């Protein structure tokens, strides 16, 4: 089981958040699926997922997606995903 805390941040403040959890073990090969589910729950477009994003999440338990990571324009500063360690 794992949990990911997703936050949309604008001007240094959390404007929207979501706690995503699954009963299965966190698998990095399925990380894009998790990201799509989270973005659908937050009602935002899905950013481009690079290998560096997965490495940051694996090493630091957090990853940040900024405007250049999105194909469409966004009305917030960044999307932050934090791994909630159980």
Label this structure with key terms:
86 residues, alpha+beta, 4-stranded antiparallel β-sheet, single chain
Question: How would you describe what is shown here?
Answer:
The protein has two helices and four strands. The protein is α+β, with helices and mostly antiparallel strands and 86 residues long. It has a four-stranded antiparallel β-sheet. The longest helix is centred in the middle third of the chain and has 12 residues, at 31-42. The radius of gyration is 12 Å and the shape is globular. The termini are close together. The relative contact order is 0.28.
How would you summarize what this structure contains?
By secondary structure, this protein is α+β, with helices and mostly antiparallel strands. The protein has helices at residues 31-42, 51-60; strands at 2-10, 13-22, 62-66, 78-84.
Main sheet characteristics: 4 strands, antiparallel
Helical segment count: 2
What proportion of the residues is helical, as a percent range?
Answer: 25-40%
**What proportion of the residues form beta strands (DSSP E)?**
35-45%
Radius of gyration, in Å, reads 12 Å
Chain-averaged pLDDT? 95
Order of helices and strands: EEHHEE
Unreliable residue stretches: none
Secondary structure category: alpha+beta
Strand element count: 4
Q: Give the N-to-C terminal Cα separation.
A: 8 Å
Give, in spatial order, the strands making up the sheet with the most strands.
2-1-4-3
